[in-house]
């Protein structure tokens, strides 16, 4: 797991671990990340299934309920198949754009 910070955002990149292992590692160290927006980059995985993305659902719901953004970045998924409850985008720039939009919505009370 590679961790990088950019302002109020933590970017977690996965190297060789499985998605389940990555989710478990994030949950175990969650206290370090809970006050930051989270971006999880899955770009090193060649194939990602809907089930892999759903592994992040509980973590995403918990993080978003605390008024923080949670975005998964992968260009290896069919975005039309992704559940509405989790934000999945194909690039890191789009993840930052989503966080910026969600911050504005929170500031406006949406």
Structure description:
The chain is an alpha/beta fold and 110 residues long. The protein has one domain: 2-Layer Sandwich (Transcription Regulator spoIIAA), CATH 3.30.750.24. The protein contains five helices and five strands; from the N terminus they run E-E-H-H-E-H-H-E-E-H. Strands 1-2-3-4-5 form a five-stranded mixed beta sheet. The longest helix has 17 residues. It is globular. The relative contact order is 0.16. The mean pLDDT is 90. This is Ribonuclease Z.
Assign the CATH topology: Transcription Regulator spoIIAA
Q: How many individual helices?
A: 5
Global structural class:
alpha/beta
Fraction of residues in helix: 40-55%
Give the uncertain stretches in residue-range form: none
Summarize the main sheet: 5 strands, mixed
- Computed over alpha carbons, the radius of gyration is 13 Å
CATH class identity: Alpha Beta
Quick one: CATH superfamily?
Answer: STAS domain
Net shape: globular
The CATH architecture would be 2-Layer Sandwich
Number of domains: 1
Total number of strands: 5
Task: Kindly report how far apart the N and C termini lie.
Answer: 33 Å
pLDDT averaged over residues = 90
Order of strands across the biggest sheet? Answer: 1-2-3-4-5
What topology does this entry show?
Blueprint: E1 2-6, E2 9-13, H1 19-28, H2 30-33, E3 37-41, H3 50-54, H4 57-65, E4 70-73, E5 87-89, H5 92-108
Parallel strand pairs: 2-3, 3-4, 4-5
Antiparallel strand pairs: 1-2
């Amino acid at each position: 797991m590679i961790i990088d910070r950019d302002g109020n955002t933590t970017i977690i990149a996965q190297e060789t671990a499985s998605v389940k292992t990555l989710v478990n590692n994030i949950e175990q160290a969650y206290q370090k990340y809970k006050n930051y927006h989270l971006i999880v980059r899955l770009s090193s995985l060649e194939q990602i299934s809907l089930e892999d993305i759903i592994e992040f659902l509980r973590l995403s719901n918990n993080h978003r309920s605390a008024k923080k953004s949670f975005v998964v970045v992968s260009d290896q998924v069919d975005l039309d198949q992704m559940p509405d409850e989790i934000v999945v985008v194909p690039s890191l720039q789009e993840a930052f754009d989503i966080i910026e939009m969600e911050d504005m919505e929170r500031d406006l009370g949406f």
